[in-house]
Write a structure and sequence with these properties.
mainly alpha
């Protein structure tokens, strides 16, 4: 019997998926205007998912290109930065908030 280390097969698909989710979420929240406040539970769930994605990205940082990791990490941190902008941004997570008038 020989003691050979088990081969680890690492698939970077999850790394790329997390990067796409963070960058896409950031772009969506910057470019799309929010028009209603979500519930408190929805707000906290969005923030928890964003934090979990950032933690997962940091854990998988060796599986992909460093440039993509840095861009996704900046977008993930910026998602929380958007929430610090004003009260409407804190609740919606979007850069802009506007109530559309009904006719």
């Amino acid at each position: 019997m020989t003691d050979t280390p088990a081969k680890k097969t690492q698939h970077p698909a999850i790394f790329y998926l997390i990067c796409v989710m963070l960058i896409g979420s950031f772009l969506f929240r910057v470019l799309v205007t929010a028009n209603e406040y979500p519930s408190r539970m929805s707000q906290m769930l969005e923030m928890a998912i964003d934090a979990a994605l950032i933690a997962g990205l940091i854990g998988l940082r060796k599986l992909g290109p460093q440039a993509l990791f840095i861009v996704a990490l900046i977008c993930g941190i910026a998602l929380f930065g958007i929430r610090m902008r004003n009260d409407a941004s804190w609740w919606t997570g979007h850069w802009k908030y506007d109530i559309y008038s009904r006719r």
